[in-house]
Amino acid sequence: MQHSAALAVLDALRANTDAPFERARAMPPELYHSEAFLKLELEHVFAREWYCIGRASALGEPGSYVTCDLAGQPVMVIRDRDGALRAFSNVCLHRMSTLLHGRGRTRSIVCPYHAWTYNLDGSLRGAPAMTLNEGFCKEDYALPSIRCEEWLGWVFITLNREAEPPSVRFAEVESLVAGYDMTNYTESFFEEHVWETNWKVLAENFMESYHLPVCHAGTIGGLSKLEEMVCPPGRPAFNYHTILKDDSLRIAMAHPSNDRLKGDERRTTFLLALYPSLLITLTPGYFWYLSLHPRTPGQVHIRFGGGMSDDYRDDAGAQQNFTALKTLLDAVNVEDRGCTEKVYRGLCSGLARPGHLSHLERPNYDFARYLRARMDAMAA
Ligand code: FES
Ligand SMILES: [Fe+2]
Q: What pTM does this model have?
């Protein structure tokens, strides 16, 4: 039953993405609310691809850690004593409690259940009252490691031993925004949220700026000009679109000391969607991002962070500018939350039908094609 439900949803995705972009429609509703399709996504997308847990600069000191769930696997990412970032299974090797929770800094990893204690390299340092079990030897125990890589300041993990590294997978992104020098952006805020919508509804909301004038009428809508948005065709591993900004927000412009960006680039914002779920707004002066992971069909877990380009580090007014911007971003997010939760409620209804896409929704079409390619790869 479960199996045939998944197959029916896959057929719907294939039929949807067979249409050329010129005739494309939004994805069928069952792709968002079906439990069976979420299971496929966890198995064939989230367990196979790179998931971003945030910025390396946020894990600066030895013992700094962050935790997450990736396709059902609890994971910790921790900076070890030698300064390397490592990821481990966040599951105790005794009776399998999860170990670390949230984010923080620690000298060693102590299980909250019986205090088996691990070093920052995952080896077992000690365990109370285990001397009488003849089979127990602490040297036999080490937390399974998980692949973890840094790329342009982003920290990615994957459960897939064979995945090509982010530097290869996203090589074209690197050249596309080379002048922004993304490594050089420092995170100054990080939050986690859960919204009542499907992860793809939120991802697609990010990928199109068609909704800005209306959904964001109360904040940035008036500044958004549909005719200044450019949506090039997507690539296999990502899509993007760009917006030109005027100088009403100084930190959205290249800093005068930045001689890497020329002409219109100096006021161009890139909206990058790195599949499956890292969504980056990159302006010459600041950035913010969402990294998404589904919890249920109708709930998405969001890692939300941002900060400024180091070009602005010594600029007196910039920090104040950024604080004001964060307040604005929060208001924008309230609007996005309203719109994406409304979409989820709507698409769960019996009379929900996907309509045609605007040319400004080109990235959404490419995202659907990406999902289809992932699913087809698994069927092959
Ligand atoms: S489950 Fe971790 S110490 Fe017992
Ligand atoms: Fe929005």
A: 0.96
